[in-house]
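User: structure tokens for this one?
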Amino acid sequence: MRLKPEQLGQHLQQGLKPLYIISGDEPLLTQELGDQIRAAARHNGFDEREVHNVDAKFDWGTLLESANALSLFSSRKIIEIQLPGGKPGDKGGKALSALMAQPNPDNLVLLVLPKVDKGTQNSKWFKTLDKVGAFIAHWPIDRSQLPGWIANRMRGYQMSADREALALLADRTDGNLLAAAQEIEKLRMLGNPKITLDDIENSVGDASRYDVFALSENALKGDSVRSLHILSVLQAEGLHALQPLAILANDIRLLMSFSQLTSNGLPEDKALQQLKVFWPKKQSQIKGAARRLSVKNVQQCLILCKQVDFACKGLLQDDAWRLLSQLIIKLCGMSIVPDRV
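Assistant:
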């Protein structure tokens, strides 16, 4: 039986299958789908839970013994099998098939897999399990879908936000669903059902993380004075140089892609759409920086990013923060003054 993630809740209200297979590479979605199944199982008397983490040395015989053993604490139990490799091998496939050949009504089996390919789905063991239970596959949320995902999640908490605020939250969490979910939880604490742009700017991330974003935003705008001030504050606060580098490098790579697309004749708005940049403020920053900087300038910024990374890792004998300041100056469209000997 195949279920879409959004169908699982209604399905669980109608009764439980002896087996559920969750497949996908997004940890938050895997966790939340599993939580739904565990909650429904507990509601139906499956009070005990045992977890088997499968690695190369896993003894599949212990799984079968455990499944057939009487519980000391509960008459019904959840048997959770975490299979991070996605493929159980010959012994594992036979063990899983044997486990579900005659399902024990006092066991509910939850098999957690990464994204499974067609070959795995066509394997004998998978087909055997698929006939007995329910298979729920989830897919990563594309960056273009993230504002909609955030809006849906907010609606579940009786919250809402306008398009620009949603775009900002998607941009600040950089496509990370877990980070987005955590920020929504923080916004709930405000007690305001209507979330504004200011709410998100004041809430997302801690103060240092916000300053890291502000650093890149001001550099893209060409404000060297403000950018270098923020950089000095970050250094004084003891932040590791790799943290501002990560944000800067991501935006510079985005700027490079935008410059290349537009230089090949693609209209600016189409280029931003293709690059999945939806927050209007970020769109303006990228456009402005591209008009101020040549492709060669942006390439030089990327070279400086690499030098900062090497300096942080001890592969280059230079000060990472000095190199970061040079990167900021270059990104602002100014000339770097050579060090005096």
